[in-house]
Write a structure and sequence with these properties.
By secondary structure, the chain is an alpha/beta fold. The chain is built from twelve helices and 13 strands. The chain folds into two domains: about 110 residues, Alpha-Beta Complex (Aspartate Aminotransferase, domain 1); about 250 residues, Aspartate Aminotransferase, domain 2 (3-Layer(aba) Sandwich), CATH 3.40.640. Strand 12 and strand 13 form a beta hairpin. Helix 3 packs antiparallel against helix 9, helix 4 packs across helix 9 and helix 5 packs parallel to helix 6. Bound molecules: pyridoxal-5'-phosphate.
Length: about 375
């Protein structure tokens, strides 16, 4: 198989792939050249704020538009956020939840999904209902078994950070809709490498940082809020930029912006957002569906070889749940450290999470990267 885009041209735009075999986008994504240039350009502007022109504000508007395009939302449904956790906290506190209501999630979620609701349990007496995963993620079967009349929301990652389980958001969205429950998604482990249409999946809110698969800088992310549900949410925080007529500073008119910008408090991370916007432009120009197809092809090849060599990959039974994250462990706990050493010695960048060696395969990876990882690992002894 070949990808439906010019893979070598993409690799030439990403300096990290010249110096190593980069299989760690699930931890932090490498920047394309365009991102570094965009960041430098805005840094130059901000170093001399007396020269700030309309271009600066246009860059921020374009960032909002690019983020919206990536998930099939409207720009006015996007609030800039520094990272996933802040977006998840904002939406958790904005939800109309009462004491005794519960929010369902599975026990493979990253803390950015879980802690906001555990904290809300502490503050407001809701229940963060954490249920044992089903094959690595959250399935309809789990929802059916663990939900009850007080289940008001489901919180889930698009892809789970260790198992790589790709949750069926369309099915979960339909289930939530039928039950009148909110669907809150953490998109950071797939956005940029797999298509996601928030409207088709009936997602009410989605938070994501931009520094993984979107290949953007740290500290620049967003919160999507479905505009049809905006008025059911109570903004938990307010700052100068959350309100209309923001430049009328001393009128103290706490009338929130009519759109998702009501969740923004103060000035955004312009440098980070300019970089994120440039990264998203690169990805959109390649076609995210084509990237997704290619990463699944490579991750299937890697899964097959890992099993052949005697490692224990996390393999979702249904291949519809596979993603660009491939993690494996060994029956002997020392095997994980040994495998990691072999990979590092061969210059293969990877991560270890919860007793698993974890790879993230993006659209810039090629078959040689997979072969190199397999050669470095060798058979499990
Ligand atoms: C599922 C998931 N959510 C969130 C994050 C990061 O959260 P934040 O953007 O708040 O640092 C990670 C990884 O670091 C993750 O794997």
């Amino acid at each position: 198989m070949r990808p439906q885009y010019d893979l070598n041209a993409l690799r030439r735009q990403i300096p990290a792939v010249q110096s190593c075999i980069y299989l760690n986008t699930c931890a932090i994504g490498p920047w394309p050249d365009a991102t570094r240039h965009a960041v430098a350009h805005v840094a130059d502007m901000l170093a001399e704020p007396n020269r700030l022109s309309r271009e600066f504000w246009a860059i921020l508007s374009a960032a909002r538009e690019n983020i919206a395009r990536l998930i099939n939302a409207a720009p006015d449904e996007i609030a800039f956020m520094p990272n996933t956790a802040e977006g998840m906290n904002v939406i958790a506190h904005a939800l109309p939840l009462q004491a005794g209501d519960n929010v369902l999630m599975c026990d493979q979620e990253y803390p950015a999904v879980v802690y906001p609701f555990m904290n809300l349990a502490r503050l407001r007496g809701i229940e963060a209902r954490i249920v044992p995963h089903d094959g690595g993620g959250l399935t309809l079967d789990l929802l059916e078994r663990h939900a009850d009349a007080r289940t008001r929301a489901v919180a889930v990652s698009s892809v789970e950070f260790v198992s790589g389980f790709s949750n069926d958001l369309k099915a979960i969205g339909a289930w939530c809709k039928a039950r009148g429950a909110w669907l809150i998604v953490d998109g950071i482990q797939s956005l940029g490498a797999a298509p996601l249409d928030v409207k088709a999946a009936q997602i009410d809110a989605l938070a994501s940082g931009g520094h993984k698969w979107m290949l953007g800088p740290m500290g620049a992310g967003f919160l999507y809020v479905n505009r049809e549900r905006l008025n059911e949410l109570a903004p938990p925080f307010a700052g100068a930029l959350s309100v209309i007529d923001a430049e009328n500073y001393l009128d103290y008119n706490l009338t929130f912006q009519p759109d998702a910008r009501r969740f923004e408090l103060g000035v955004p991370n312009a440098i980070g957002l300019a970089g994120l916007s440039a990264s998203i432009s690169v990805l959109l120009s390649l076609d995210i569906a084509a990237i997704h197809e290619w990463t699944l092809y490579l991750s299937d090849a890697l899964l097959y070889e890992l099993e052949r060599l005697g490692y224990h990959p996390f393999v979702p039974r249904d291949c519809g749940h596979r993603s660009a994250i491939v993690s494996f462990t060994t029956s002997d706990p020392a095997g994980v450290a040994q495998a990691s050493q072999r990979l590092s010695a061969a210059g293969i960048v990877h991560s270890i999470r919860s007793g698993y060696v974890r790879f993230g395969i993006h659209g810039f990876n090629n078959e040689e990267d997979i072969r190199a990882a397999i050669t470095a690992l060798g058979p499990l002894k």
